[in-house]
Amino acid sequence: MSLEVVGAGFGRTGTLSLKVALERLGLGPCYHMLEVHKDPSHAGLWSDAADLEPPDWSTLFEGWGSVVDWPACYFWRELAGHFPTAKVLLSVRDADRWYDSVMATIFRALSREFPEGAPEPMVRQGAMAKKIVVDLTFGGRLDDRAHAIEVYERHNQAVRDAFAGSDRLLEFEAVQGWAPLCAFLGKPVPDEDFPRVNDTASFQQRFAQMAEASEP
After folding, report:
1. What CATH number is associated with residue 59?
2. Structure confidence at residue 211 (pLDDT)
C-alpha cells in the first residue's frame, strides 16, 4: 500500500475534518499529528527528518492511505516526490481567520512549557512540534501576526507553483464540502454531511486534558 493523498496544508485549515473525510472515502487510515501522540516513537523520526535525516518514507507510511497536518505538511515536497502518484491536497482558509484559530490552539499549546517531571514521551512530542512548527516554519515569531500570515500565504503559493498546470493538486476549503474533493479523488459523494470536527473549543478541551496528564 502506498500513500494516495499527501496533504500540504498547514494545521488549522480543517485538517482533522479532512482526515475523517478521507477515511470515509476509503483513503485511510489517514496520518495526522494525533498519530504522533498515539505512537511517541514517531516524534524522533520527524525530529530527525527536520535535521535532514529523513526516515524511509515508504516504511513510515506503510499501511497508511493518506496524510494531512503537521508535521507531514512541512515535508510536502519530499512526500510528493517520494510518492509520485499521490494526489496533493492544499487545505486552506481565510488567512486572518486561520491566524486567529492557530493562535488560540496550536500556537498556544506550543508556547507552554512542560512542568518538571512530565512524561518523557510527551516532552519529546512537544519538542518535535516546536522545532518543526515554531522554529523551522515560523522562525520563532508566532506572535507576529503579519509575519505568520506571510509565511502561511508564501507556503500556499509555493505549493500552487509546484503543481501549476497539473491535475495532481486540489486547493480545498472544508466549507466546500464533499463535491470538489470527491470529484478530484474520483469517489462518489457520501450521503452524509461533510465532517466538522476539532473546532477551537474542542482543541482547547483536548489540550487541557493533555496538560493535566503531563502533571507529575
Report:
1. 3.40.50.300
2. 42
Tens-place pLDDT, residues 130-146: 999 999 999 999 899 99
Rounding to the nearest 10 degrees, give the CA dihedral for residues 129, 132, 137, 139: 90
pLDDT tens column, 69-127: 999 999 999 999 999 999 999 999 999 999 999 999 888 888 777 667 777 877 888 89
Closest CA to 1 of 125, 96, 86, 76: 86
For residue 215, tell me if it sits in a domain: no
145-162 and 95-104 helices, crossing angle to 10°: 120
- Region of residue 113 (phi > 0: left; psi between -120 and 50: alpha; otherwise: beta): beta
Angle 194-200-201 from CA coordinates, rounded to 5°: 105
Cell numbers that stand for 50 in this block: 527536520
Structural domain includes residue 214: no
HSE (CB half, 13 Å, CA atoms) of 182? 13
Tally of domains within the chain: 1
Kindly state whether residue 216 falls inside one of the protein's structural domains: no
- pTM passes above 0.70: yes
Q: Which residues contact 198 (CB under 8 A, 6 or more apart)?
A: 16, 17
* Cell numbers 473525510: residue: 21
What is the extent of the structural domain holding 167?
Answer: 5-208
